[in-house]
Write a structure and sequence with these properties.
Helix content: 40-55%
Number of helices: 1
Structural class: mainly alpha
Strand content: under 5%
Radius of gyration: 29 Å
Number of strands: 0
Distance between the termini: 74 Å
Shape: rod-shaped
Order of helices and strands: H
């Protein structure tokens, strides 16, 4: 092996070191971006509010609540305990 071939080979490996190091990170980011875009797309393409699920009442001006939920069920991730 001549010095020209050795130095050229070392240079090529050195030039490829950074892209090969960043490739797995970039691939993970691309997968996360794709998943986020799918969630946004699913949200934007979702049906509008079903009119039979919403009741509009204009005949109760004395009621103080702008929104009233009856028999609602809500969930959000893991249960968190409040420490007093």
């Amino acid at each position: 092996m001549t010095s020209n071939v050795a130095f050229t080979t070392l240079l090529i490996f050195r030039l490829l070191q950074f892209p090969m190091t960043i490739f797995p990170v970039a691939l993970g980011e691309i997968v996360q971006i794709w998943a986020s875009m799918k969630r946004v797309e699913e949200y934007l393409e979702a049906d509008e509010v079903k009119m039979d699920c919403v009741t509009y009442t204009e005949d109760k001006p004395k009621e103080r609540n702008a929104i009233k939920i009856e028999n609602g069920t809500f969930e959000w991730g893991l249960e968190q305990k409040k420490e007093d």
